[in-house]
Amino acid sequence: MKKFIENLPKAELHLHIEGSFEPALMFKIANRNKISIPYNSVEEIEKAYKFNCLQDFLDIYYQGASVLITEQDFFDLTYSYLQKCAAQNVRHTEIMFDPQTHTERGIAFETVINGISKACEVAKEKLGVTSLLIMSYLRHLSEEDAFKTLEQSFPFKDKITAVGLDSSEKGNPPSKFKNVYEASIKEGYIPVAHAGEEGNSDYVWEALDILKIKRIDHGNNALQDETLIEEIKKRDIALTVCPLSNTALQVVTDLKKHPLKKMMNLGLKITINSDDPAYFGGQVNQNYIEIQEALNLTKKDLYELAKNSFQYSFLDSKTKQIYLNELENYYKLNS
Ligand code: HPA
Ligand code: ZN
Q1: Whose atoms come closest to the Cα of 61: which ligand?
Q2: pLDDT value for 46
Q3: Which residues span the domain enclosing 25?
Q4: What percent of the chain has pLDDT over 90?
Q5: Average pLDDT in the 69-97 region?
Q6: pTM of the model
Q7: What are phi and psi of 199, to 5 degrees?
Q8: Based on the structure, what is the number of domains in the chain?
Q9: Is pLDDT of 329 > 90?
């Protein structure tokens, strides 16, 4: 099964680039920028990665991101993740980035976007990995602040496909961002949002009805409401599920109790993703491997999950079909 997963062509649809920041690279960039971080070794950093909830993690995640200063830093961060994609047969990825995490510290929007997008261009050419970018608004900040970010993105519109919503969920419902989502959609961005990770099913309803999202990030708590499940199916909207993130942040107590298979059985369109792989104990293949073992998933289940990852990506239909054919051939030869 492990080999089958490793060679399976797949896409990753829920990945925060700041969450892919491995301790070794963090040290290297911190040294290069002469910034001190409150750890003496990679081991010390890894020890600090114990979380009781989303906020515990976010505090450490923002601290880590604060060593990123130059365009080269953002390039290195992104290219390092894309190399891991290539090594895992991740053929396509849709990368979230949090401009406000950086602009709040005085880093220019263009430094962030140029570093990330240049790495994506080089990876497409050299590694054969395609990518799209999702600009995510931080929900603990105001809608006005999100509007500023939207405006800053205008000169770079051709580099950004979608807008997302992340950070502290509880107390920051999707409805807080109604107007900025409306404006983002008018600008041509596809809307997605984190909902139902720690927030309840009402947050998922709001994301669907008020923000008009086309994909749900996490969405675990949608299972609280049968009418909502039917609505998600009716609208043909996929969920980007992140198993190791869910256990790391105590959203799910044990992988064996993870609702992923139940979601699939209900007819929901599920994908497997790593979320913040440097913090949650595994890249996307490790997520596939551990959830397969925990829930006894079959090759057919894994094929369906990978198929959804291409089907529910925001790629144009021609490129999507190329990847789907590749997957189909792989499955025929290896099932
Ligand atoms: N949830 C909310 N915000 C985030 C996450 C997450 O899983 N990862 C990075 N920012
Ligand atoms: Zn996330």
Answers
A1: 1
A2: 86
A3: 2-334
A4: 97
A5: 98
A6: 0.98
A7: -70, 160
A8: 1
A9: yes
